Structure formats: structure tokens, C-alpha cells
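quick one
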Amino acid sequence: GKHQLLSVDQFTRETVEELCSLADIMQPIARRQKVSRVLEGAVLGNLFFEASTRTRVSFGSAFCRLGGSVCDTTGFTFSSMAKGESIYDTSRVMSGYVDAMVIRHPEQGSVAEFARATNIPVVNGGDGAGEHPSQALLDLYTISTEFSRLGKLLDGAHIALVGDLKYGRTVHSLIKLLGMYRGLKFTLISPPGLEMPEHIVEQVAKQGKHVIEQTSSLEKGLPGVDVIYATRVQKERFEEGQDGSFTADFQVNKAIIDRCCGPDVIVMHPLPRDSREGAHDLSVDLNHDPRLAIFRQADNGIPVRMAIFAVLLGVETLVQHSMRDVTW
Ligand code: CP
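structure w/ phosphoric acid mono(formamide)ester:
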């Protein structure tokens, strides 16, 4: 059968928790205490037709740390799609060269098109404003590990999703994954015009007894939350002439967190955060604040992506036996 990761809709709470347990097993490799060669001889094709640092490098690193190797084709310029080659032909050809593909592409649905043309495992590394399932899985893993440390449960948690909820594909995937838990309260805080798509809100409302509130005010939305998940305003996906001048009002910074939240709040962001003048989604004044989880979150990309490969390539039960101590 086909082994693909295209959408979080493929998961149940049980399979998400199995993946998180497998990520825990991978942690000694991610932390460079152990090594494994379980994917020795396997080759990953990393096909990124849109900018990426974390997803591209962490998928590549995760594959290499399990003993495999990586071929990169980054950007349309370096692929024959620049000469008009179709997704179908590209995918068929790549299937003969590599054992799994991770694909990022600016058009929603395009990664599913790659997947339909091949029998090798395909992972959606982000398809336009569609989904980013591996990011949502590592975000859920992060919330779960941070909550364990704080003695909190995911059931009943209060989560604020902040910023560009219309074009931010990571929040589209994450809210559906969180919706698999019980009795959550979601506060969706976005500038006017960048609200979470209605069909996703409806899907999550049907998943369980959740409270879903929407506001355009950080001051009103933040009090009482357990997690603040900030996002970058994705101006590159704006329609012609769409105004993006409101972004400064949505900056998550130390002052507003000190004013509205307690000492146990977790501040997350899928990254990259925009450091350019006038586009601050998450302030740097939290960089040394322990409530800022963004770098722990980015680090979790390695064990979670190792777990994804182990499942897709059918080696999940071999991993533990293949671990050895590091010799370097
Ligand atoms: N979070 C994330 O997808 O980052 P990159 O765009 O750098 O891959």
C-alpha cells in the first residue's frame, strides 16, 4: 500500500500518540547520545519549490541520522519543471532515484498530485496555504512535552492561535490535530481579513466539545491561555493590493505576556519570525524568557521527523535494536 503523509486528517488521537511515543524513542539519537544506521542505503529526495530552512534541513538531518542519505533539488530553477516538466513526470522519474520524497510547493493540492503519481512514500512539507502536517505533529509533540513538565493535560487546555490564520498552513493542520483531544478552548486572534477559514472552524467544532472564540484583540484574547501560538503574516500569499499594515498590533511581546498571562504560559511560533522593520510577529525581547518555547519546538523537528520516516519506511520496530553509543 501507499505510505504518505499529506494531511493531519489521516490521524486519530491514538496514532498521533503512537507517533509521539516513537519520537520519544528517537530522542537519544536527536540529542547525539546514540546513533542508528537503520536506513542505511536509503535515499531521500528533498524537493522544495518554496523557501525553507527548518523543514528542508530537519527532514534531511533526520534521514541522515537514521543512516540514510539525501538528494536536494531546491527551487524551480534547479529542476526541469523550469522547462515545463509536469508534476506527474517529475514524480514518476524521482520514484526510480529515491526511496522517499519530501515536497514543498506553493500550490495547495500539488503534493497530493506528486503522491498520486508514485508508490514511494511522499511527505507534504507544506503545500501553499493548505497543510503542513509534520509541523503540526512536532507542535503537538512540543505542547505535550511542555505540558508534562508543567503537570498539565492537553484535554481542557486553552490555546490561542495568533496572527495570519488565513494563509498560515501550520495553524490549519495544528487546530485539527488539537481538535482530537477533549474540551479545548481555542481563542483565534487575527487581524480583520486574516481569520481562520470557516470550513476548518466548522470541522474542529464537530470534532468534540470545544469552545472556539474569535477576536481581533490580543488584550482580550490572551488572559487565561496555556499556549500562545504566534504566526508570521504571509504577505507573499496576499491578493493583489491587500493591506498588511496592521501587523504591529499583533506582536506578541514581553509586555503583553507579563500583563495578560501567568508564569507557566508557553509561547510558540512555527518560525521563521519576520525580523524586518514593521513586520514583528514575535518580539525578540522574549529570547531569554523560559516561557519562549520556539527553539525547543524547532529542535523537536528532528525526533518527530525521524519517527515519521520510521513509520513510512516500516522500520519503527527495528529502530531501538539498531541504536549504538556514539563514537565521536
Ligand atoms: N516552520 C517551517 O516550516 O519553517 P521553514 O519554512 O524554514 O521550513
